[in-house]
Amino acid sequence: MFKMWAIIFLCVCSLWDLRVKKIPIWLLGMGAIGVLFSYMVCRNRMLLDVIGGIGIGGICLVISKVTNESLGYGDSLLICLLGSYAGFFITIWVVTFAFVVVGIFSLFFFIGKGGYKDKTIPFVPFLTICYIGVMYI
User: What pLDDT, on a 0 to 100 scale, did the predictor assign at position 3?
Assistant: First the structure.
């Protein structure tokens, strides 16, 4: 049941990222409330798995800082939320696949457009697609 809510939340974040290219804090807060609610209902979560999932988001936050937000802070915070909900192993697969898919997309975009400067590609839609793929395929 919560998998579907996570997909709906990620789809809303994806649409927001596509239109505005920023994830608002209030939307991430809504996601955090959803994660807390899932913890209250499903108490069978392993603490190390949750901490590991959040750690992946923490590494992404460091990458955001070091690369001057090539990977946005909102994307990294969303990965923290995803990690806290999905756990370490699912999050590592989702993030890895998302980076591979966005890399392939970027390569074709560069070739098709002849390169570009100061353009950004929203990352959350790739996270959403890869989350759906990891969870259901």
Answer: 81
pLDDT, tens digit, 9 for 90 and up, residues 104-133: 998 887 777 666 666 778 999 999 999 999
* CB of 89 closer than 8 Å to CB of 57: no
Q: How far apart are CA 26 and CA 133, in angstroms?
A: 27
Cβ neighbours of residue 6 closer than 8 Å, sequence gap 6 or more: 34, 82, 85, 86, 131
Structure tokens at 61: 């936050």
Q: Which amino acid is at 121?
A: I
- What's the CA angle centered on 101, arms 47 and 75, to 5 degrees? 50
Report the distance separating Cα 121 and Cα 45, nearest Å.
Answer: 34
Tokens of 116: 């570009």
